[in-house]
Amino acid sequence: MRLLPIALMLAALAAPALAQPRDTLRIGMVQFPPDMHPNITNTSIKDYILNTARRAMTGYTDKGRVICVLCTEVPSLANGRAKVVQRPDGVEGMEVLFTLKPDLFWADGTQVTARDFAFAHEVERAFSVPATVEKVEATSPLDVKVTLKVVRYDFDRSAPAPVAEHVEGPIFRAAKDPLDYGQKSLFNRRPEEPGLWMGPYRIAEFRPNEQVTVVPNPHWKGRKPYFQRITMRLVENTSALQANLLSGDVDVVAPGNLGLTLDQHIALTKSQGSRFDVAYVPSVSYEHWAVNLDNPLLKDKRVRQALQMAIDRGAIVKRVFEGKFEVADSFLHPTQFGRYAGMKTWPFDPARARALLAEAGFKPGADGILVNAQGERFVLDYTTTAGNRVRELVAQVIQTQLKAIGIDLAIRNEPARVMFGETLRKRSFKGVVQFQSDPPLDWVPYTTFHSSYIPSPANNWTGTNYMGLSNPAMDTALAEAWAALDETKRAAAFRRILDIANEDLPEINLYFTTTAVLTPTWLTGVAPEGRWGNPTNWVENWRAK
Asked: Please, what are the domains in the chain?
């Protein structure tokens, strides 16, 4: 009889705790950014983290329509905020005016102004001179004027994301060079500085290669964030991440290749359906190989064509991804602007692949591996992110498929921070690197294929033409596509871009991904409904049910 009051007391103590709303969220991820400055490296995991605390001038709906995020009205020729102008050199350019919303504040209480956008352009130029943006000016505290050296169809996306001039300006101007600034920047030295952040959250704790914690920005005037603390923690491999999720050490995982693999998502929904919801979000993101075109083994396009035909992408999609991914026969998804019927493709054909390799001067050696005229064995160095179980499985499948045509795939995987921070950024890979690109729905692949974007000391290794493609015809087509305000003209330029890319194959296309967003059943708002892009672009919508 004496136990009953104790049991009742314990129940009474436990009830309020259970009734309290969840106000913290723990996210697990298998990658960690090599640095935190938005202009130094370009990685999906950095975007995932930074988008909780930063915002761009514009964003997209799920249909790819441009919408204002920080501005009051999307510039257009019709509303007069964009106009074509004649430049002193005789070339047509553009002037684009963005007006900021008046209620934007850095997390230290300082108002976001047009000067922060002008300063962002100044920083961007230090790392890599923009191909088309000549000037970004603050014509008033809330008006940002972007001057373009050429006519660009995507002028409404030409404004940079802001960088806090009142915090970073003195550091930037005192630095000896961009490398010195990158080391001294508070983005890398003290990212907990509130004045760096102007999104719904700010970074409150940063442990390199371990975790990042964000808390609400008290000066954010948009929808009030629900969670009072979000911690994003590195778990080095997908198996350990799944164990962490099931044990409750993390509540949710980062989407796509930043978190669990697709087969893990599918298995979890089958075995843990009462605990987790999963949304499969169609994606134009494509998994591919960047090919180092400076490698003598890979210079001949017939070799690259053979590689493309030797990989049975259909079998990989069917067996590894249960048919939820799509075979990529181009860098453009079928839903994206620029595709055309009858474009050149390279279906699985190992016999034709062997014939092309023979034409390129390779013949089988004593052990079955091809050798060239100098007797060098065809050993192809391959790198992807270590710890990603599915990528490692795909690599093993492709290794077997390539061996069937006489190519030895030497797998040399690296941690994501090394691969993106050094290997890709400085083009130090010898063969191919596999990773995923996340292009906008409506894009011209200028920064991927134009020769001016080959990473080099001259652009502080910020270029993203990792292949080293230098093709004057491609450069011309890219420039024409970017400049075409008329869709018919842009489609014609895109046809030439596709023809060159699909003939020369600087990238080996694998598949288009489907982003699986796995969340506990008590969490809502994470899958981007009605919005396109990274889920953290809309982190203020995340809620406990």
From this structure: 21-54+184-276+521-544 (3.40.190.10), 60-167 (3.90.76.10), 283-514 (3.10.105.10)
